[in-house]
């Protein structure tokens, strides 16, 4: 398993390019789908994600890429998404919630890898590296996919509604 993960690390930059293309395609699709519609929220969200992933890809050759830098990219993108949410008058699409969850998961994984490699100095394979690799790829693919289909296929919005009702009724408060 460790050999497979080291090979995935070697493919990291190429996989980053692939996910950047997914976000570019999502933006172009949403842009063309929203041309004659008043709601441009999905096109705007796709543009934010495309710009974020493209910027992180373009900055890599200029600086030594580290997990902490990727954490910063995700944190800034989350901030931009929350600012977009506060200042927009449009409906909030399903993809917004998936982007928040996906970027938060990615940010936590990047921060965990930074702590593990830089602070702890771990250079051998262990289970967290597999969680990092597959978790990051899964969340990136899910975010790009949900920007295109705009469906709650993992049930995040149903879980959100359930948790809101659960805590609003006072059952979650001890």
Q: Quick gist of this model?
A:
With 174 residues, the protein is mainly α.
What is the percentage of strand-forming residues?
A: under 5%
What is the quaternary state of this protein? single chain
Order of helices and strands: HHHHHHH
Q: What would the principal axes of the Cα set say about the shape?
A: globular
Radius of gyration: 18 Å
The total domain count is 1
| Helicity, as a percent range | over 70%
Low-confidence stretches: none
Class from helix and strand fractions: mainly alpha
- Number of DSSP-assigned strands: 0
SS element count, helices: 7
The major β-sheet equals:
none
Chain-averaged pLDDT? 87
Distance between the termini: 44 Å
Characteristic terms for this protein:
174 residues; 7 helices; mainly alpha; single chain
């Amino acid at each position: 398993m460790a050999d497979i993960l080291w090979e995935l690390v070697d493919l990291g930059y190429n996989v980053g390019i692939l996910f950047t293309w997914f976000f570019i395609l999502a933006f172009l699709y949403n842009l063309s789908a929203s041309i004659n519609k008043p709601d441009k929220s999905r096109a705007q969200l796709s543009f934010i994600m495309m710009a974020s992933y493209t910027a992180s890809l373009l900055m890599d050759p200029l600086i030594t890429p580290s997990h902490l830098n990727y954490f910063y990219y995700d944190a800034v993108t989350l901030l931009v998404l929350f600012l977009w949410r506060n200042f927009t008058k449009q409906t909030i699409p399903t993809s917004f919630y998936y982007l928040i969850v996906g970027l938060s998961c990615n940010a936590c994984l990047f921060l965990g890898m930074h702590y593990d490699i830089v602070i702890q100095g771990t250079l051998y394979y262990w289970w967290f590296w597999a969680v990092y690799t597959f978790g990051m790829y899964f969340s990136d693919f899910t975010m790009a996919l949900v920007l295109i289909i705009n469906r709650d296929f993992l049930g995040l919005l149903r879980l959100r509604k359930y948790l809101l009702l659960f805590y609003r009724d006072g059952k979650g408060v001890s």
